[in-house]
Amino acid sequence: MTYEAFVKLVERLWDEIPEDFKRGLQGVHVFPEAKPEPGLPGVWRLGEYLDPGPPSAFGGFEGLGRHIALYYGSFQRVAGKGFKWEEEVWETLLHELRHHLESLAGRDDLVQEDLKRLDAFRRGGLPEEG
Predict the structure, then answer these.
(1) What's the CA gap between 52 and 26, in Å, rounded?
(2) Distance from C-alpha of 104 to C-alpha of 43, rounded to nearest angstrom
(3) What is residue 54's predicted lDDT score, i.e. its pLDDT?
(4) DSSP 8-state assignment for residue 115
(5) Three-state SS annotation for 2-68
């Protein structure tokens, strides 16, 4: 899949999400590069939710806003034969959107789940579901 086709896919899926779920979200940004997972060689971050947090006294976060980033290059790196692009993009988009909604609600349940998965992965195993 080309970068341009990837962007169009993301735009189409983004448009399917009800506006109420996007409240307080600047948008979704698609970057052409791959993003390695820190400390895990050969593992690629497909997306992430970026929340600058509360504004500082110095105005450091002014205008930054909350947004979702998707990394086309990372999808390319993990895509093998039979890779289901739409399914994987949709799953990643909804995962990051859940981070946003939990952030608005003052929760970090998914953050904790992600940290447990990464820890298990670093130890060489796959985390148990649920």
Answers:
(1) 12
(2) 29
(3) 61
(4) H
(5) CHHHHHHHHHHHHHHCCHHHHCCEEEEEEECCCCECCCCCCCECCEEEECCCCCCCCCCCCCCCEEE
Strand, coil or helix: what is 108?
A: coil
Q: What is the model's pTM?
A: 0.85
At 15-29, the pLDDT tens digits run 999 999 999 898 899
Query: Mind listing the pLDDT tens digit for each residue in 54-94?
Result: 655 555 555 567 899 999 999 999 999 999 999 999 999 99
Structure tokens at 88: 């994987």
Phi, psi (degrees; rounded to nearest 5) at 36? -70, 150
Query: Which residue type sits at 109?
Result: D
All residues at 6 or more sequence positions from 30 whose CB lies less than 8 Å from its CB, including other chains: 3, 6, 7, 10, 69, 70, 72
Sign of CA dihedral 97, 103, 106, 107: positive
